[in-house]
Amino acid sequence: MVASRNGSLASSLLLAAANLLIPLSILVFATGFFPYKPFLPGLAEFEPLEYGPPPKAPFDRLVFMVVDALRSDFVFSEESGFEYTQRLIRDGSAVPFTANARSPTVTMPRIKAITTGSIPSFVDLILNFDEADTSSTLAAQDTWLSQLKAKDTGKLLMYGDDTWLKLFPETFDRHDGTSSFFVADFTEVDNNVTRHINDELEKDDWSLMVLHYLGLDHIGHKSGPRSTHMPGKQREMDGIIHQLFNALETKSHLQSTLLVLCGDHGMNDAGNHGASSPGETSPALVFLAPKLREISSRYPAPAQPKNEYDYYSMVEQSDISPTLAALLGFPISKNNLGAFIPEFLPFWPSSSDKVQILIRNARQILNIVTAAFGGELFDLQASVDPCVSISSDVDELACEWRRINSQAASQAGAKEVDQAWLSATSAWIRRAQDLMSSMASNYDMSRLSLGQGLSVAAVIASVASLGLQGFCQAGFLMPLFLLATSYGPMMFASSYVEEEHHFWYWTSTIWLAYLGVKEVQRCSRLSSISNHVLALAALRLIRSWNQTGQKFAGESDTVKRFLIPNPEILWALITLAYVVVTFQTLQSLSGLPYILATSLMPAVFLATFTFKLAFTAEDAPELVVGFAHDLLDIFQGPSLIFRARIIFGLLAVLSGFAIYRAKTGGPRASQSSVELVHHLCTLLAMTQSRATNIPLFLLSSIILQTLQSTTLSIAEITATSIVLQYTTFFAFGGSNAISSVDLSSAYNGISGFNVFAVGALTLISNWAGPIFWTSATNMLLLQKYREGKTDAFKNHVILLTIFVSMSVAFVIAACTALRTHLFIWTVFSPKYLYCMAWSLGQHLLINVGFGSFLFWVGT
């Protein structure tokens, strides 16, 4: 007896250690894998060159207009709403490009690339979601904003996305920032920017006006690039261009003003961004000014892309920085890796000026190259000649540098610069840019190794915990270990990571079929056969609900093919889902007076259903038609924030009642209390889910009912929980791409950014399916507990911890082994971030934390 207690205590301590080692390994590895890249401090200054003073700038003022998620085809295609902008392109007043935005395609790192000309660290992706973060500020770094500030020719203004205010604190003299994460707003978020324009255009005390519009990005997140809102928003942005360009033409103090229109990133076919699909990495870039008619070649517009989104010339987003430096007359930023865009060279007829612009750009990048590889190869006076034996990209770069640098002086003195030299110099800058941009991050290998060791220690501790607890107590473990050992090696293949949902879809189908066959063999009842066939049919529907992954993200699925074209069917299913869950909740309210219970449930139904109706009317109004629109007219009134708070309040009160009843009413009350909490959890998940995903809760409930009538061991319950958590995560539209993170419900019930509230709501909305199955799993475990398996939950947590720790160990190993892989920042690093979310959020917070609470309520 004493030995048994000691073994159980040791098992518990090892389990606790394993669950502490998991987050520790993740955080230690992350500090070595996502370090801040060092930047050269201070502001660049014009170095004296033998070719004379710096070239005179054709512009003295800049309007920099960012339209968030402005994909290239939104401006340049035949379907574009930018008709006025296209007219300017045709008459030579605008020069168009497609800018290559490198992954991660989210706002903060893209603004860093645009303003510094450098390649931001992938860690900026994480900081992008924390509006309170100031650690990634660019205040101490050399950017074209700091150069304009130092030039002191006028005030700096900023209106729009407050990311600029975070990145450039105390930089702007006049500003009005807007939160970028309240994605339900398409209108006010842009009107808040536009209302400042007229007054500022009348003033002549500024040299820079940054305008960052968010509405188009919000439309994409809500309803995709083909939304009915998109053409109108494009026309609105085109109207802003019209207003600005008209001022440039008519106001004397704006005659030497350059207007730049660009997107910070694009969007994929689902309207999201963060990954590396062509749509996400191909924002539009247009330089506009009446002066451009002097040099422009007059491009056709609308245009046809060379590839999917490659319109006109493709440039790097970092090229904006050195190009603005030359056009506005200040030194190129010290950390720039961008190349001057040669289409603007005709502004300087002098050969000396042309050579200066390119040579200054080349020497500035050369400083970064020599800092990385040493300067001997690039020194013209050195005894080593890199052209003798070219064995690497660096040797080739050094050899070509000697050639173009040795010819620079003669080219500067010539009447016309040799086009071959211009092309060779631009090509050298581009090669140096590619070399430095593709260099691996400055990984801290000691931290990577320590993180790997801690993750392996977590695996050992969790397996040892199970050994001390008794392997046989959990039931047949082979399926669970097969699941872990087959899933882990997939992390080493980029295609498997991108299309991970297929693994879970087939695994869940095979697993449910196995459980069905096993149960039929055990009891051979017709009802059992029909239940498992129905469960498999429900699973098949769940799998087809939302197309996900990378290769076929925009392809047809149940939502696109049947529900969106037939919103009446969608609302019938949504209504049915709310009715069923509300009725189940009512059945679980034993202990409340009948009149109170029957009065409370209509209130819960109306609060949850009308919120979803009103939210969808704002989110995707094209879905609110027919009887849904009639109901919306009837229930018009409170704001969405107030409605959401009412729901959260009702759910909190009922949860409190469930806990009170469970702890004072005996075993029977505990059972109904757990069922009540499960239904309340389902209502919360439905509140945080998109309208099109709500029928998935009905299908999941069908599978749950089948499982409740099936005899399962603890190991089988755990395996079922894992496969259905992952399956529903992907079926709800999740993927291993940052672009699939859904922020549409992140502000339900709150009026401003709060890191904890927004974080919790985002977790619930993106992991709604897994959270449902966490709650459902605990109902199954409580059945085992009532059958005498008192260690049911502990054994379940041990098995979960084994799977999670093995997953973390494999992902860390894959990221370490493939750190120089082409897809390290586009596939494997996002997978690591999702691994963090699954292990820290879903495992520790939901499965262990919330699951412990549910089990406590039931016991």
From TrEMBL:
GO molecular function: CP2 mannose-ethanolamine phosphotransferase activity
Pathway recorded for this protein: Glycolipid biosynthesis; glycosylphosphatidylinositol-anchor biosynthesis
Keyword entries, A-Z: Endoplasmic reticulum, Glycoprotein, GPI-anchor biosynthesis, Membrane, Transferase, Transmembrane, Transmembrane helix
Membrane topology: Multi-pass membrane protein
UniProt xrefs under CDD domains: GPI_EPT_2
Pfam families: Phosphodiest, PIGO_PIGG
Annotated transmembrane regions: 448-468, 475-497, 569-586, 592-611, 640-660, 753-776, 797-824, 836-857
Keyword Membrane: yes
Gene Ontology cellular-component terms listed: endoplasmic reticulum membrane
Secretion signal span: none
Start and end residues of each GPI ethanolamine phosphate transferase 2 C-terminal domain: 440-858
Superkingdom classification of source: Eukaryota
Function text: Ethanolamine phosphate transferase involved in glycosylphosphatidylinositol-anchor biosynthesis. Transfers ethanolamine phosphate to the GPI second mannose.
Family that this chain belongs to: Belongs to the PIGG/PIGN/PIGO family. PIGG subfamily.
Protein name: GPI ethanolamine phosphate transferase 2
